[in-house]
Amino acid sequence: MIALSTLTADAAQWNGFEQRDLIVDGRKCLLILPNTPAPGKPWIWRMEFFGHEPQGDIALLGKGFHVAYMNVENMYGAPVALDHMDKFHAHLTMQFGLAPKTVLEGFSRGGLFAFNWAARNPDKVAAIYADAPVCDFKSWPGGKGASRRSAGDWKQLLNVYGLTEEQALAYKGNPVDNLAPLAKAKIPLLHVVGAADTVVPVAENTEIVAQRYRELGGLIEVISKPNCDHHPHSLKDPKPIVDFVLKHTGQAKPQGKAD
Predict the structure, then answer these.
(1) Would you place residue 253 in the very low, low, confident or very high pLDDT band (cuts 50, 70, 90)?
(2) Can you spell out the DSSP letters for 103-156?
(3) Across residues 45-71, what is the average pLDDT?
(4) How far is it, in rounded angstroms, from Cα 108 to Cα 194?
(5) How far is CA 140 from CA 4, 13, 129, 171, 199, in A?
(6) What distance in Å separates the CA atoms of residue 52 and residue 30, rounded to the nearest whole number?
(7) Which of 77, 48, 103 is nearest to 177 (CA)?
(8) 209 with 176: CB under 8 angstroms?
(9) Which of 40, 116, 176, 189 has the greatest count of CB atoms below 10 A from its CB?
(10) What is the C-alpha separation between 31 and 196, in angstroms, rounded?
(11) Cis omega (within 30 of 0) on the bond before 232?
């Protein structure tokens, strides 16, 4: 059962758009409403770090998209997080009438949530925009490659997944290992990465995803920012991100059409 309550009596505002504060399945959630919803009520679902480098989200709100967020922090895309996320998707589609397929937006560790939920629910995903995404928890926070281990995060991750260190090293449920359901569903991917990322190294994450996804016949576009480390995320001008989302949700205007 989906539990829901409104946290604020009056609607709040986020960057000039109406904000709804919700509780779904015991988790705090946000839904930002566009001034005029686009046909079919498309939406983008921020996995982590809501409000950080929000230029893409703000631009999409201006295009009629809803922007959603569920707080499943410190769950690292584990099955328990995906269970909560299932309930959130069901609530937004049933109670708010949002589109059955959403765009998943995975910043950094949010990549674990985006890819893992998409692998579980490929029929509910229109596209994935991943930004400096963690695609293998052995890379971060595990620090088993070029990245330095984040000891606190690694301990929390092992606990929430219910894994020992040895089991985690042998685990085959990371995004890099579980791309076939996405490719079969023809889910397009956009990765925006810093070429010099030392926290979530591209070679251990996005490069592996890109190679394997293409081998599976999947569509992936990678935008690489030269001399950029893990931060800043996104793009100063989010147009390539917005265009990708519009294209793969059927919201792009035919060429030659004026606004």
Answers:
(1) confident
(2) EEEEETTHHHHHHHHHHH-GGGEEEEEEES----TTTTTT--SSSPP-HHHHHH
(3) 97
(4) 11
(5) 34, 34, 19, 14, 7
(6) 14
(7) 77
(8) yes
(9) 189
(10) 34
(11) yes
104-119 tens-digit pLDDT: 999 999 999 999 999 9
How much is the pLDDT for 9? 37
Calpha distance 105→138 (Å, rounded): 21
Q: What are the residue ranges of helices labelled H in the chain?
A: 55-62, 79-95, 110-120, 151-161, 165-170, 180-184, 206-215, 239-247
- Provide the 10 A C-beta neighbour count for residue 252: 15
Q: Which CATH superfamily is domain 4-247 in?
A: Alpha/Beta hydrolase fold, catalytic domain (3.40.50.1820)
156 exposed, middle or buried (CB, 10 Å; 0-12, 13-18, 19+)? middle
